[in-house]
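Ex. 9. Protein: Response regulator.
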Amino acid sequence: MKEAGGAGLDVLIADDHPMIRAGIRATLMARPHWRVCAEAETGPAALRLARALNPGLAVLDYSLPGVNGLEVARQLCREMPGIGVLIYTMHADPRLLSALVAAGARGYVLKTEDDVALLAAMDAVAAGGTYVSPDVAGAPPAALAALTPREREVVRLVALGETNRNIAAQLNVSVKTVDTHRTAAMRKLGLHTAVDVTLFAVRNGIIAP
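Predicted structure tokens for Response regulator:
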């Protein structure tokens, strides 16, 4: 949990490789008011320790034994809305990123990046923001992480064939507001037509085929 004044932060590290955990601990020395409250080697252990200690930040390997990082992230974000979850992984997979964003994780860092990137990611997630490694963020599915919840909902409804007027009625907002969200979402996703939106939504699991 955060300490009084908001400067301190308890951090849970979960990785089955001791050297990786040691590296994360060393990186955290740059933030003297943060502390590693627990370390876990498996997914079940990470869940147990997080529930007992309620850390403010969880740094998780995706390939955790027992329960993988995606499922750990999903359970922690559901049970502890205030926790920041950062995935630290070797997998540069935009599809995995999309699944983790849907689960509630706010950070995705590749283990091939340096300590500066890892610290920047931890800072961003601890502050309530997001961080995605550039090697993953450049792929179209990763752009989903940049959408606001309302933009994502507008994308879903556009993909289902709804007009701006119908979307406005469903969301109880003005047509102009819908148009603003639609334009912003399509710009972030690099899409140009409603057909593009539909294809993107199907490919990335926003709507069923």
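Check your answer against this statement. Residues 175-189 form the longest helix (15 residues).
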